[in-house]
Structures are given as structure tokens and as C-alpha cells.
Structure prediction request, 325 residues.
Amino acid sequence: MSVGRRSGAQHDAFVAAAAPRTGDGPQPPTDPIHGDHAVRAVAGDGRILALAAVSTDLCEQARRRHGLWPTAAAAVGRVLTAAALLALPLKEGGSLTVTVSGDGPIGGIVADARPDGRVRGYALRPKVDLPPRPDGKLDVGGAVGARGLLRLARDLGLGQPYTGSSPLVSGEIADDFTAYLLRSEQVPSLVALGVLVGRGSTVQAAGGLVVQLLPDAPSDAAERIGANVDALGAISRAVEGGRTAEEIVADALAGYAPRTLERRGLRFRCTCSRRRLASVLASLPPAELRAMREEDGQAELVCRFCARRYLFRAAELLALETRAR
Ligand code: ZN
Prediction:
């Protein structure tokens, strides 16, 4: 991880802000859990796995922090929700990172999730809003682009992360995850993701569902569960109507006696800190720190994942510079 100066260099997760500000500004409040949650369930004698989430506040937090325009808000929300779901089965200390890189105007989306329900993420270009599709839905596929790659890395806390990738199918995200899970992990899966962006461009409801069929799953499961999910309708509308993740699983797996194994709160939460940013600055060549101090009088760094700003004044830069020498 490293930083760039205001001159425009960008690296990894952190970028220098375009314009310095005069203070750290108000710190974002601690995210309350509100009603967001996710569940992991099994059915069909353990041969059917299900993950479901209500992620409205998570998606709205992402929209607010990053200033996402409606189509971008839907695209990022779908990726955040999918990452949150797929991180649920990981062991404590593990994490999962999803990167969706398409040829559409959004440029790329990154999401990072942990099994305890912490999720963060961003879009390379947040100000994307396209005319709706003929069916009235937000044109997420148009914003993301249908040509590109979905990459997923699972860090199990054992050193080398497990990584896989597959080409995008439509850029609509749910289809792309379905293809990834089949192609890269050989698990037939049903993925449904929905983000409802309402008046005022705020996220009104969001959620997701992943159903996976293990070998020896009942032979009629794919067809019956597909029909159940069709009857359930759009996930975002189900969430808007007040359905919980448990109820979404119960509807999707009706006929297979689903059983909830665990439930977690979900929240937008980043791992950045002033101390981490200071260590990033301290790793820069002293000449670069001196240039920031003498030419800009300060350095302002913005966390790409959560958009939080960190200001380092000249005296702090001098101290880091002296330490680095
Ligand atoms: Zn951050």
C-alpha cells in the first residue's frame, strides 16, 4: 500500500485528494447495524446450501460515502451484497475480495468482506447514471460492461489466498457470480441480487440470495427452487416489503425443510486508520515527504475503500521525514 501526491499519482487503496482541506473534518459516525443481516442455512439433508442477506443500510452507506449516482449505487450495492454473502461461510479471520472489471463507464468495482459481517467497497468511477433499461430496471450491465472479468480471492488466514476468476457474462453481477461459481468453483448456484434506488437517489431496499446445490442434491431441486425464487419476485422488492433473510430462505427452499445455521449483522466498516496511513507515509522516500511539506504544507490522503480523509500537517510530515532518515 502506498500513497500518491496531489500531482495525481495513484496507488493501491489510497489516493491523495484532489484538493487539500483545512482540517480532518467530522469523522464518519460508527455505523449502526440497523436492520441489515445475513443468514447461512442448509436444506435437503445438507445437500442444499443457502445464503441470504438484507443489505439496505450497507448499500446506502456505500452510496453516501462515495457519492454514487443511481446506476453506480445499484452496481456497487450488488457487488457488496454478493461479497457479504460469500464471506459468511469463511472461518474467523478470513476475508474475501471481489473485483469486477468490465468495459463499462464505471471502470471497476472492488468489495471486501469478512465473515463477521464487515463489508467495504468502492467503484473506480462513482458518478455513473444511465437511462433505465426497457423493463424499467437500472442498467447495471451497461454501467459495468459485459466484457471483462470477475475475480475473487478468499484469504483463509493461512498465507496464500485462494483466487479464481471468470469472464463476465452480462455485467448485471448476479449472472456473473453464477457463472463464476460454476466455472471456477464447480458449484451450480442460483444468485439473485437486488438494489432498489428510490426518489432522492437513496437506496430504499437491497438484498441477495445464493443457493448452491452440492453433489447428490435432490434431482428436482434446481427446477423447484428456481420456481420458488421466481415466485418470490425481485429480492429488493421482498426486502422493501419487510421480508427478513430467514423468510427469503424459507420461500426459496420451500419443500426442502431449510434450517438456519447462523445469523450475522452486516455493516459497512473499513479497516483504515490514521496510524496505518502514517505508516504508509513513513514508507515514502524522505525527499517526497519533504516536497509535500514544503510545496503543499500538508498531505491529505483519502481511503479508497471508505472515502475517509486523513490530513497530515507539516509538523507531522517533518516528524515522519526525520524518522524515515
Ligand atoms: Zn477506509
Summary: The pocket of zinc ion is lined by residues 270, 272, 303, 305-306, 308 (CB under 6 Å). The mean pLDDT is 89. DSSP finds ten helices and 15 strands in the chain. The longest strand covers residues 203-213.
